[in-house]
Specification:
Number of domains: 1
Strand content: 15-25%
CATH architecture: 3-Layer(aba) Sandwich
CATH topology: Rossmann fold
Largest sheet: 7 strands, parallel
Radius of gyration: 17 Å
Low-confidence stretches: none
Structural class: alpha/beta
Shape: globular
Oligomer: single chain
Mean pLDDT: 89
CATH superfamily: NAD(P)-binding Rossmann-like Domain
CATH class: Alpha Beta
Helix content: 40-55%
Number of helices: 6
Order of helices and strands: EHEEEHEHEEHEHEH
């Protein structure tokens, strides 16, 4: 049986990687990209919905109940942002959409891209980690039939994908060899965008024993055979 998926953040590095894998995968039937700007991708599986105001999803007219999974890949760097602003962009936007998705289809699989170092206790010193931790906790508590929090850590972009964060792209342009060296020195600590996309599809179709998905889990999921 094919699955239909909703993707946010498809203009970003991780989101685009996930989108490309979904478009290529035989288990995925339809893909709805929900974002603020048009993607320069034309594919028979892909439907794009432009939604400018991520603070209010009540006006979203799509029948989200027909989708089996939501891959929430939208995110911003915390650099230069106050905790209030970062919380709005990271927590409030994500929970607003997730609540709308849950109302449409509680049986949906919800997958959220967080990050290694996320603080599930909410008591740590690092602002972004606390906010991501609260987002994870509240997503898991919503009641989706399946919910997984992906913490990919170090990511290698494939298929010509670029990061919109200038600092990250600078590292990829000039120090990718160092990232690849880390993969050799510490196997299981580095993943690529293709593996993240495949892991999401596998978790949706077959489930997984953990709800916090770290790099080693991503690699295991991505290597699973149908």
């Amino acid at each position: 049986m094919k699955i239909n998926v909703v993707i946010t953040g498809a203009s970003g590095m991780v989101g685009k990687g996930v989108l490309l894998e979904c478009l290529d995968h035989e288990r995925v039937g339809q893909v709805l990209s929900l974002g603020r700007s048009v993607l320069e991708i034309d594919h028979p599986k892909l439907k794009q919905v432009i939604h400018k105001d991520f603070s209010d999803f009540s006006t979203l007219q799509e029948d989200l109940g027909e989708y089996d999974a939501a891959y929430l890949c939208m995110g911003v760097s915390a650099a230069g942002l106050s905790e209030e602003k970062y919380t709005k962009l990271t927590y409030s936007y994500t929970m607003g959409l997730a609540s709308r998705l849950y109302q449409a289809n509680p049986a949906m699989t919800c997958i959220y891209v967080s990050g290694e170092g996320t603080d599930s206790t909410g008591k740590g010193r690092t602002m972004w980690a606390r906010v991501k931790g609260k987002t994870e906790n509240d997503l898991l508590a919503l009641g989706f039939q399946q919910a997984y929090m992906f913490r990919p850590g170090v990511i290698i972009p494939l298929r010509g994908i670029k990061s919109r964060t200038k600092l990250y792209q600078f590292v990829y342009d000039y120090f990718l060899w160092l990232v690849k060296l880390a993969k050799v020195i510490a196997p299981g600590s580095v993943v690529n965008t293709t593996q993240i996309g495949l892991a999401m599809i596998q978790a949706t179709c077959h489930g997984y024993e953990k709800d916090i998905i770290r790099p080693k889990d991503i690699l295991l999921l991505a290597d699973q055979k149908e």
